[in-house]
Amino acid sequence: MNSCDKAAIICNKAQYREATFLEIVKLRFHLFICKTCSKATEKNNTLTSLCEKAKLQSLSNQEKLKMKEKLKT
Amino acid sequence: MKIIKDVTSISVIFEKDKTPMIQHQLQPDLWVDSYADYLFNFAVGRVSDSEVAKDLVSETFLAGLKSAKNYKGDAAERTWLIAILKRKVIDHYRKTNSKKGKAEVRMNYSSASDAEGDWMEEQVADPYSTLENSVMENEELGLAIQECISKLPKKQSQVFTMKTIEGISTEDICNELDINPSNLWVMVHRARTALMGCLNQNWFQL
Questions:
Q1: What fold characterizes domain B133-202?
Q2: Do B32 and A68 touch (CB under 8 A)?
Q3: How far apart are CA B143 and CA B134, in angstroms?
Q4: CA dihedral defined by B46, B47, B49, B53, rounded to 10 degrees?
Q5: pLDDT at A21
Q6: Is the full-model pTM beyond 0.80?
Q7: How far apart are CA B33 and CA A11, in angstroms?
Q8: ipTM
Q9: Chain B closest CA to A14's CA: distance in Å?
Q10: What are the boundaries of each domain within chain B?
């Protein structure tokens, strides 16, 4: 795995606030030297904010199963 | 003569493109997996109550099943289901507004404006406000994202939904789907990349 791939994975973890401090430091350093990754990170951040803005909701698996059963009867 | 020839060839191509559109078929077994979330988001935007929205979605599926024989196949399955759901939403408001509802005047007096004695002015819409727009935009954005999610491979969309929308922890998802964390992050990465591409086309320049 090259450093850009690693950076992408850390960036995704960071979107869910699951990156460790050390990982974030590594990511920052990589973004400092890699323009492509810093653009990708920017896009990724936008996607996260869009998802938050849209206040998406979804049905849980249980509820879907219930619906399926209802449909069958 | 040459022009006419060209025109016929164009129309043939056009029809070729059209043929897959005509052959829509209903597949009720896949409805819940494919459309439940999309319909749910659509309904929540209109009734702003997730319990009611859930009921409406499941009623929509039942109604769809009942009237499946009326489906002509010129609209896509989802469009057809949305049309049914819209009727269900209208019915819902009719039901809540029947008899008693019609006689009642519904107005919310906020206590602050009550005290001031100028509640009438405060009820008037602010012409410069763009808040209403953002609500609508966000709803459309939600549907656009949902549509993009439904285009992802099943496993990816499942992981992305669990992680992003339901906010389940990495550990729990791994246990439930029987995958390891690095697998999960690769799937999340692929899903996000695909979503960015899809939203780029359907929503705006990301």
A1: Arc Repressor Mutant, subunit A (1.10.10)
A2: yes
A3: 14
A4: -80
A5: 93
A6: no
A7: 30
A8: 0.84
A9: 11
A10: 2-101, 133-202
